[in-house]
Amino acid sequence: MDGTRWLNGDELAAWLANSAIMISLPAALDARMQREAQLTFFEYMVLSVLSEQPERTMQMSALAARTAASLSRLSHVVGRLEKRELLARKRIPGSGRRTAATLTEAGYDVVVAAAPGHVAAVREYLIDDLGPQELAALRRIGAAVDAAIKRGQPDAGAAASPPVDGAVDGRSPTIHPASQPPADTLIVTPREPAGQEPDQP
């Protein structure tokens, strides 16, 4: 015996079902996002995360961690979005060569316009076919898998939070209060128009 803990029948079936989700769900979301919003799913994720930040700005290394991307991949995607004037990069004063990405007004408008379609896709492909108990189980499973992944990372204490996303109802996204965890389904949260106080969650 080589000591390998091979999967039994039930474990293998669960893993194969999860593998199908990991492969097919991102592909379906990406295809729909490109068709409806002319963005890849990863581009939408980058714009959505920036929309939730103070001044819609985030250091590139932090943005890479937040979106679970390498700096090289993120830099390539940010460069593509820069050409479309959806975001801009700038050096951070006094930090050497570190740079930050800032969501432009055009980028903000794009992510706000794309969010309803994204929410509809998330509902169609995942949420609406699950009952309350299944959703609760999905949350527990997601948390357990996330914790296991972070335990296996060299600097687990610095592991990134899940990406932020938010649902838009025609108004603009807002920053999550510091006392609340960010949403983890990539759906932009609404903000009251200027001059009005946001509703308390």
Automatic annotation (TrEMBL):
| PROSITE patterns linked | HTH_MARR_2
Spell out the Gene3D superfamilies in the cross-references: Winged helix-like DNA-binding domain superfamily/Winged helix DNA-binding domain
Domain of life the protein comes from = Bacteria
User: Where in this protein does the record put region Disordered?
Assistant: 154-201
Q: Which GO terms describe its molecular function?
A: DNA-binding transcription factor activity
Q: Which residue ranges does the record assign to the HTH marR-type domain?
A: 9-147
Q: Which sequence ranges form a coiled-coil region, renumbered to this chain?
A: none
SUPFAM superfamilies (UniProt xref): Winged helix' DNA-binding domain
Please give the biological process terms from Gene Ontology that the record holds.
Answer: response to stress
| Pfam families registered for this protein in UniProt | MarR_2 (PF12802)
Q: By its UniProt entry, which InterPro entries does this protein fall under?
A: HTH_MarR-typ, MarR/SlyA-like, WH-like_DNA-bd_sf, WH_DNA-bd_sf
PANTHER family xref list: MARR FAMILY REGULATORY PROTEIN (PTHR33164:SF99), TRANSCRIPTIONAL REGULATOR, MARR FAMILY (PTHR33164)
- The protein's name: Transcriptional regulator
Q: What is the lineage of its organism?
A: Bacteria, Bacillati, Actinomycetota, Actinomycetes, Kitasatosporales
